[in-house]
Design goal:
Number of strands: 14
Structural class: alpha+beta
Helix content: 25-40%
Number of helices: 12
Order of helices and strands: HHHHHHEEEHEEEHEHHHEEEEEEEH
Distance between the termini: 95 Å
Largest sheet: 5 strands, mixed
Shape: elongated
């Protein structure tokens, strides 16, 4: 700064007041820099004023060597107990000079062959109001590691059936199945693990066996293992979700599908320098073909038809034909419909209601009940 002040005044002809404003200092500081006899800070032979901290520096250095993460505020308290009255700002400057630099992690970027790997993640995106009910909003994202092609979809729960349904939609979107898919240690995939021994979720292994891919669990507390999909969640928040409005879950899903198709997969990717949609055309032939029949991802539970010809599901009631009162039927539900099945025959179908405490009725059922 001193050298720059001298150059601007003595070589460029700036006024002293102008240079002072340029550096945000008093004009006397500039005048002092112009003097030939002014000491240069840090130069050899320049005497440094003694400080009350000098006598305690060996103590500070030893404490920092023993406990590298000890805060300056804690050290300030210990110095006060030793009778040293020093400002916290001065202490922080000294601690910053002597504290060993914290080691930073280094990461090796691992590249994959086309069709070799995909990465999956869940993320919470707050809540959405449906009628009088607040529902948690989650996003499911899957990224193909080679092409960086992205699939996203939103839902109101993270149950196993929803997890498998999102997978099925993602694989249908990519029109193929990669060799392996990487996950966090979520309960839908990993029930328990001891060291490297993993107990997989049996229901999820059935899904893996149907689509013939290998499931891989990332190490505990190591999100960088699946960094491609971790970065995609940040991208979804900033580029798509933030600042938009949605009238319903259906509207949100439609906007997400359009954004994924027209924006996310059409951008020039910062790492590959290519569009994910174009790389997907190259990767798609290397993916395993989808099975002839999709995996059944419906919620299937036995329910008893009440004397009011209704069944209960997800805090709502759905009407059923009156002739089935008292019988046990099977309820099959996805994120759009609720169906009642008896003996392999569908006896009722309703649009799924995501609010709570409501009675969903088929007019035909009510007319039959009145008769």
């Amino acid at each position: 700064m001193r050298a720059e002040m001298r150059r601007l005044v003595l070589r460029e002809g700036w006024k002293i007041e102008t240079v002072a404003r340029r550096f945000g200092v008093h004009h006397s500081v500039v005048r002092r820099a112009l003097r030939h006899d002014a000491p240069v800070p840090g130069a050899a032979g320049v005497a440094r004023r003694p400080s009350s901290l000098d006598a305690h520096k060996p103590f500070l250095v030893q404490r920092i060597l023993d406990l590298p993460l000890l805060s300056a505020m804690r050290l300030h308290e210990e110095l006060s107990e030793r009778g040293c009255k020093v400002g916290i700002a001065q202490l922080r400057r000294y601690v910053a000079q002597v504290r060993p630099a914290r080691p930073r992690k280094a990461y090796l970027r691992v590249e994959f062959e086309p069709g070799d790997q995909a990465q999956v993640d869940w993320a919470l995106f707050g809540h959405m109001r449906v009628g009088s009910t607040q529902r948690k909003l989650s996003v499911f994202s899957m990224v193909l590691s080679w092409s960086r092609a992205l699939f996203i979809d939103f839902c109101f729960d993270q149950q196993m059936e929803t997890f498998c349904r999102m997978h099925r939609r993602a694989l249908e979107f990519f029109a193929g199945v990669p060799k392996r898919i990487v996950y966090d240690n979520l309960k839908s995939v990993v029930v328990d693990r001891v060291g490297s021994t993993i107990k997989w979720n049996a229901r999820f292994l059935g899904f893996c066996g149907h689509y013939l891919f290998e499931a891989t669990a990332a190490p505990v507390r190591y999100p960088e293992f699946k960094g491609r999909v971790e970065n995609s969640v940040k991208f979804i928040r900033q580029s798509f979700f933030y600042g938009r409005s949605f009238s319903s879950l259906g509207d949100l899903r439609a906007q997400a599908a359009a954004w994924c198709r027209e924006t996310a997969n059409q951008r020039i990717h910062g790492t590959t320098g290519e569009r994910p949609a174009e790389r997907l055309l190259v990767e798609r032939p290397r993916l395993r073909a989808l099975p002839a029949h999709p995996f059944d991802t419906d919620i299937v539970i036995p329910v008893v038809v009440t004397k009011e010809a209704r069944v209960r599901f997800d805090a709502n009631s759905y009407s059923a034909p009156s002739e089935h009162v008292g019988r046990t039927v099977y309820l099959r539900a996805d994120d759009e419909t609720v169906r009642l099945v008896d003996g392999g025959v569908e006896i009722a179908r309703h649009d799924r209601c995501w609010s709570r405490g409501l009675h969903i009725e088929d007019p035909a059922h009510i007319e039959k009940l009145i008769e």
